UniProtKB/TrEMBL annotation:
Organism: Flavobacterium yafengii
Protein's recorded name: SRPBCC domain-containing protein
Cited Pfam families: AHSA1
InterPro entries in the cross-refs: ASHA1/2-like_C, START-like_dom_sf
Similarity comment: family membership: Belongs to the AHA1 family.
């Protein structure tokens, strides 16, 4: 696996960016770049499960590995979800099971730097290099709106 890193400067306080990232409505907007209609189900507490889902019920079963409000969120991806059911780890998912996805916010003089890092398997690297910048641009747009 390769760790991909993306960074963007946003002219908004980190609390606003955090809200855009994890508020149900805006989360659905910026993650639509990856999959139209995607959403997450969780209580959003550190150590809790989180299901990242597409409208047809496919997605990833993960845990909230670490959460520091307005500063840091990390997910550990465990297995696939098919038709809303957690699947056991098989040979295909073994390749990426345990992959991490992390978000860090730092603010200086009203400018927030959003850093996103994720572990990716080789076959998805080009896809993520194209889609992540678009997703972060949308987070920036939503965060900078009044």
């Amino acid at each position: 696996m390769t760790t991909l890193e993306f960074k963007i400067e946003i002219n908004a306080p980190k609390e606003k960016v955090w809200d855009v990232l994890w508020n149900e409505e805006t989360y659905k907007q910026w993650t639509s770049i990856f999959c139209e209609g995607s959403y997450a189900e969780s209580d959003w507490k550190e150590g809790s499960k989180i299901h990242f889902l597409s409208p047809n019920g496919d997605g990833m079963n993960s845990i909230i590995f670490k959460k520091i409000d307005n500063e840091y969120m990390a997910f550990k991806h465990l297995s696939e979800i098919k038709k809303f059911q957690e699947m056991p780890v098989d040979d295909a998912t073994q390749e990426w099971a345990g992959a991490m996805e992390m978000y860090r916010l730092t603010e200086d003089n009203g400018i927030t730097v959003l850093e996103a890092k994720m572990d990716a398997v080789e076959k998805y690297i080009d896809y993520f290099k194209t889609t992540w910048p678009k997703a972060l641009d949308l987070v920036k747009k939503l965060s900078e709106e009044k």
